[in-house]
Amino acid sequence: MLKQAGFSKLEMERFLLILVKEPDATNKQVELLTAKRQQILRKIHCREQQIDKIDYLRYKISQKRS
Asked: Looking at the record's lineage, which domain of life comes first (predicted)?
């Protein structure tokens, strides 16, 4: 499931290692999941901005053709 969620091999190892080494494993795992979620959202936001710029350029070009 972690791989499908975008975790690298190193991130998966860290996540599982927490179970063995951390007394408060649940909180630490939630922190890692939250950090990964934020990382993915930043990438999505960046892609959305790129799409907005492409749409703007398409709009400007189509206006010149009219």
From this structure: Bacteria
The span from the CA of 7 to the CA of 22, in Å, is 20
Q: Is 6 left (phi over 0), alpha (psi -120 to 50) or beta?
A: left
Closest among 49, 37, 45 to 6, alpha carbons compared: 37
Question: What's the pTM?
Answer: 0.81
d(CA 40, CA 4): 13
**Domain residue extents for the chain:** 9-65
Average pLDDT of adjacent 10-residue blocks, the chain of 66 residues:
96 94 92 97 98 98 90
Q: Which two tokens stand for residue 37?
A: 């979620």
